[in-house]
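Example 3.2
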Amino acid sequence: MWKGRMRLPARVLGALAVAVAALSAIARPAHAVPSFASQTGQPCSACHIGSFGPQLTPFGRAFKISGYTLQGGDGLASRIPLSAMVYSSFTNTAQNQPGPAATHYADNNNFALDQISVFLAGRFNDYAGAMIQGTYSGTAAAFHWDNTDVRVTTPIDLPNDANLRIGLSLNNGPTVQDPYNNTFAWGYPYVASALAPVPGANPIITSLIGNTLGATINGWYDNSLYFDVGVYGTMGTALAKMMGDFSYPGTSSAPMPYARVAYEWDWNGQAAEVGGLLFHANLEPGGIPGYGTDTYTDFAVDGLYQFIGDGTNTVSVGGIYTHEIQNLGASVAQGLAANPNGHLDQLRANVTYYYQKTYGATFAVQKTTGSADALLYSPGPVTGSNNGKPNSMEYIAELDYVPFGKSDSWGAPFANIKFGLQYTLYTEFDGGVGNYDGYGRSAGANNTLYAFAWLAF
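Structure, written as tokens:
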């Protein structure tokens, strides 16, 4: 199935809509891991903006690029690379959905146990480390192989006191290994409701996180220039289902190349980054052979500015713009798309402020536009498009409270918790404002209030 890119026949789409909605939320959150804090001897606030993941500081990015190998903690706990997390929530949408948001849930005002995750996260030796996550989704009532990054790395000394670190990452989706929170696997929102409608159209790269296998070679020159190149392939239908991924997007007909470059400046408690990304996918829609392949090429540029200072006032501003070129010949042959050529454009941007690494506020925007296609974006209750357009516009405001995560906090470094209140406002949804789906629903009906408690230990 195409998550947010292709629309299956209505009878199939209806059967899978709940699972895809839940798993799209599973793919987006990223996590703070207390076993890393125990291993390094550093509080969560050293690696993460606001004392809680996943938003990384310069120190946190260096720790990830260095293969999760840094030491500094002491005692038995610093050598046990195990952690866990759980978060629960309440979801309200401005208007009830036509039916239950998921099995055993109501059509609105739902309390949920969103996720329980277990992590193997830490160093193996001076040259290797990993973050491997397994997740149980309470909303989908299913286990899922979540974000995984296994790294081998070594430093190389160069003339004139310059340095180079090179490494190899084995991971389960493009950008899972990326150290910058502008990109997709670790991008904002870090948690989101699995029980609220979300726009259907996203760059294809987002649909391949968690259900592909990749190997990339990365380098970090002089603690500034970061590059990462490699290839990905889909797992295949049987393996993807065995791993708990119901949003299987298709079969790759050849290795899918990925390239990433970024440059970072760090000075006086501040950091800035500019970068770019290229990804090319070739997929047989639905894993059905004999119709050729659809191809997608994603070009993205991103940027970041952070003010860390002495930790009293912390600011992080980031964003990414993606342009996708689509050739959907195979989908046209299967009757899933009307036009063989199209494009999709998406802008994501956010600004976060924290006071004393404890009290936080975030404001974010996401705008998606693209080519119209009456089959690719067809009418349907809640998730459909009445005019065949993918266009959506959303604004997100969030308030957070993180009482722990500092060096003198209770339970440090073994426990941390984050309380959040998030509101998402839609001014356009799947191509329209009023009656956007062809069944009378307005974009504002999907406005979502989401309250959550997120515990890591």
